[in-house]
Design brief:
Layout (H helix, E strand, L loop, with lengths): L1 E2 L4 E5 L2 E4 L10 E4 L3 E3 L4 E6 L10 E10 L2 E6 L11 E15 L3 E4 L2 E2 L4 E2 L6 E6 L2 E7 L3 E8 L13 H9 L24 H9 L14 H16 L8
Parallel strand pairs: 1-5, 4-7, 5-7, 6-8, 7-9, 8-10
Antiparallel strand pairs: 2-3, 9-15, 10-11, 12-13, 13-14, 14-15
Helix pairs in contact: 1-2
Length: 244
């Protein structure tokens, strides 16, 4: 099957409706027994209602191969809301295939185009930071495409579900102190006050998990000591050379 301008809109799993127009608001599973090729001018619309695939979320199942291009439109229905608890995700597998190649050139979520704020692998997967630690991710594997919505824990600046030394190092590098402004969640502002200061760093240390996502109150003592020294140096010597 080659899609160059069609806008898939899933109805009942056994009765899909294909054509341009608004979403059907009736999620379902569409199965293709052969191959699926999406051209550069085509748009695939996927509706998310939360919960079970087919009953509340669209899914495109391709028995053969798929080559992707064009636009993916993800449409959250009224029944779905983003995660409300920090450190939690909603995960949706929207496409399965015997083999996948290519990526969507544009991904839209609820009408807004997602930006690759964090590139997560060499397959075209990425995370977009919306605001306040809310990340939307698109992940491509050899046989699937999935979407994840994450409300990150404070200190998880890159939205990878852990607070590790990468996050802490980035916060130190972007440290501004409480009197400056211009930083974002991605650069360490965990409380939305426009700066990356000791409050943000302390919160990140409390939420430290390491890259293995194993909960731990703080890093190893030696690492914590180095962090404290670095923060102290930055806070006390913003306008002069540290250690001079």
């Amino acid at each position: 099957m080659f899609a160059d301008s069609l806008l898939p809109c899933f109805g009942e799993p056994s009765d899909p409706f294909w054509g341009p127009g608004p979403p059907c608001f009736t999620p379902g599973i569409l199965s293709i027994s052969g191959n699926y090729v999406q051209g550069a001018a085509a748009t695939l619309k996927i509706e998310l209602g939360g919960g079970d695939v087919g009953a509340l979320n669209d899914q495109l199942n391709i028995a053969g191969t798929t080559n992707l291009d064009g636009t993916l439109q993800v449409v959250p229905l009224a029944s779905y809301t983003d995660p409300a608890t920090r450190g939690t995700t909603d995960d949706f597998t929207i496409i399965t295939a015997g083999d996948r190649s290519g990526t969507f050139s544009t991904v839209q979520y609820d009408g807004s185009t997602l930006a690759p704020d964090v590139e997560t692998d060499g397959n075209g997967s990425f995370r977009d930071h919306v605001a306040g630690g809310l990340f939307r991710s698109v992940t491509y594997t050899s046989t699937a495409v999935s979407v994840q919505n994450l409300l990150a824990s404070a200190g998880d600046t890159d939205g990878d579900l852990d607070v590790d030394t990468v996050d802490l190092t980035g916060m130190i590098m972007n440290y501004t102190g409480a009197t400056s402004s211009g930083t974002t969640w991605l650069t360490g502002d965990t409380n939305g006050d426009g700066d990356t200061d000791t409050v943000d760093l302390t919160t990140a240390i409390i939420n430290f998990t390491s890259a293995r996502n194993t909960a731990a109150a703080v890093p190893e003592p030696s690492g914590l000591l180095l962090l404290v020294l670095a923060v102290g140096c930055l806070a006390a010597a913003r306008n002069r050379n540290c250690g001079s």
